[in-house]
Amino acid sequence: MEKDRYYKYSDYLKKHYGVRVYKLPVNLPITCPNRIGKPGCTFCSEKGTGFEAMPATVPIARQLEATREHIRGRYKAEKFIAYFQNYTNTYMPLSLFSQYMEEAANVDDVVEIAVSTRPDCVSDPYLDELARLSEKKGVGICIELGLQTANYHTLDRINRGHGLAEYMDAMGRVRSRGFSSCTHVILNLPGDRPRDCVETAKIVSVLGTTLVKIHSLYIAKDSPMAADYLAGKLDPGTKEDYFERLRLFLEYLSPDIGVERLFSRIPGPDSLFSNWGTSWRRLMDEFLSYLTAAGSYQGKCFDYTNGSALRGAF
Ligand code: SF4
User: Fold this and answer.
1) Residue 40 CB less than 6 A away from ligand 1
2) Measured between alpha carbons, how far is 103 from 198 in angstroms, rounded to an integer?
3) What's 54's DSSP letter?
4) In angstroms, what CA-CA distances link 163 with 158, 166, 184?
5) Ligand 1: does its nearest atom lie under 6 Å from the Cβ of 44?
6) Are the C-beta atoms of residues 301 and 252 closer than 8 Å to each other?
7) Pick from 246, 125, 274: nearest CA to 186
8) Residue 207: predicted pLDDT
9) Does the Cβ of 32 fall within 6 Å of ligand 1?
């Protein structure tokens, strides 16, 4: 791990599936309960988070097949993950959910269904339906959960509409079925300190998430945060501060957890602020140099489980 600095998602996929696997985002004509009669999370755009997918009006199979052919040609991918990314993909009647999931599982070369949702929208009947589909079609299941931070005071401040307990409950249900999981976090939410990044890494590690997707805070033009940002009341912090939070987060994260992303992605025209105006490639290079200079790597401080105070005490 020290050599690679962190456990990359591409390595996780190769280890898990043995071939090159890519995610294909799918958009559904759905919403999110946190946006019904409420403004939603303060960082959420009107478009949700599905910036990379085709319009929700396009049938699922057609979305997947079109993106699959594009990705296959460009990246030589062999197998694919149908990724229900935008809004809350379990917030619909169970029968409709089953129909959507089955449609995706029927597409050639789809080996996994990834369902992005909120921790308070994970329930047994929906998970049982996915277990049935997994058994019938031989596809893997990954549940992607937005946690963002373990600091429930911050969760209240950003209008998440759930706390830490809902995440813990959802993780238990997901793990009991043998599904994999991916937890989404934002490391520089307003009000959160570096100590919160440490605690978030510890919580997701001990609860056994399979993967994490790490985001830097962006300010979408049509998000509730935009007004505060424009009024000078919201500061996403400096790039150096983010690097330090990311370093801490990775050091406390279990080395067995795959890391899907270190920075956010949002199209330029949709954002007021994103990644300190630095390109994705350059940020990666700068951050890896930062880790190397600090002698840092994922799991360096993963020594806090299983009665750590007893170790070597007697
Ligand atoms: S849970 Fe997701 S879709 Fe819903 S308001 Fe928050 S960020 Fe937006």
Assistant:
1) yes
2) 40
3) P
4) 11, 6, 14
5) yes
6) yes
7) 246
8) 98
9) yes
Q: What is the pLDDT of residues 238-269, one digit of tens each?
A: 999 999 999 999 999 999 999 999 999 898 89
Bridge partners for 215 per DSSP:
186
Indicate the top mutation candidate among 45, 118, 121, 166 to test ligand 1's pocket, ranked by most ligand atoms within 8 A of CB: 118
183: β partners: 145, 212
pLDDT in tens, 55-95: 888 999 999 999 999 999 899 899 999 999 999 999 999 99
Q: Does 1 fall in a domain?
A: no
Q: Rounded to a whole number, what is the distance in angstroms from the first to the last CA of the chain?
A: 30
The residue among 276, 214, 273, 213 whose CA lies nearest residue 240 is: 276
What is the C-alpha R_g of the chain? 19
Q: Quick check: is 116 in a domain?
A: yes
| Interior/surface letters 2-18, b for 16+ CB within 10 angstroms, e for the rest | eeebbbebeebbeeeee
Share of the chain above pLDDT 70, in %: 97
CATH number at residue 169: 3.20.20.70
**Bridge partners, residue 22, by sequence:** 80
Residue identifier of the C-alpha nearest atom 3 of ligand 1: 87
Choose one of 87, 121, 147, 148 to mutate for the ligand 1 pocket test, by most ligand atoms within 8 angstroms of C-beta: 87
Q: How many domains does the chain have?
A: 1
Residue 309 in any domain: the answer is: no
- Give the domain extent around 21: 9-301
Average pLDDT of the residues in 83-111: 97
Say if residue 51's pLDDT is above 90. no
Q: In this structure, are residues 179 and 139 in contact, taking their beta carbons and an 8 Å threshold?
A: no
DSSP H helical ranges for 49-123: 60-75, 94-105
Residue 308 lies in a domain: no
Sign of CA dihedral 263, 112, 258, 70: negative
Question: Taking the model in full, what pTM does it have?
Answer: 0.96
